[in-house]
Amino acid sequence: MRDSKAGREDQANDADRRRRERDLATELERMDETEPPVKESALRPIEEGLKAVSFPAPGTEVRAAVGDRAVESATGTDTVRDLIPETEVTFDSPAAVRARVQRPTVAAAMKRVVEASAGVQGVSLDISQREAYERTLRSLAAVDADDDDEGIDAIADWIVGKISDKGALPGSRRVRKEAATFCRSNGYEVRDDEWLGA
Q1: How do the domains of the chain map onto residue ranges?
Q2: Backbone dihedral angles phi then psi of residue 99, each to the nearest 5 degrees
Q3: What is each CA distance from 49 to 43, 53, 115, 119, in whole angstroms?
Q4: pLDDT tens-digit readout, 52-86
């Protein structure tokens, strides 16, 4: 494509179209997610405390800055220290911290998984695998919003057990299959077109 006004406009239009397609795909992907148990307004004190932190920041710095702040949800009260792993896993922004603590049950389970993987030499939980694990746990939370999230605890226990037994992380697809098995054995339907059904 030649460098002309028309060519630049075409490139800009293509970039805008791709951005809108990505936004739509993200919105469709999140359509089935449940409402986070912690409201945005309840997280303002944590965000105020994070203003002193230079991002990207590891979990240890986040814990040092706001670790004693309380996060109240429908299931009880946790501190940020209970939800953020004490590792060098980095958070890109205050929004990333907020997104993590907004779902305390999932955050506590992920904290256990991250800390278990950090304790094994040669095991590294990369970003894409961490996101896949977290999406699986969020899907378990959405299966039945009225239960006590026993599926989240069961799958987190299973992952931590695999890490300690084999010294390796189970693949994200294997974790999804284990979560689907848990759901089906407890009477919850898992469709093939859902994240857990894959």
Answers
A1: 32-102, 104-198
A2: -60, -35
A3: 10, 8, 24, 29
A4: 888 888 888 999 888 888 887 767 788 888 888 88
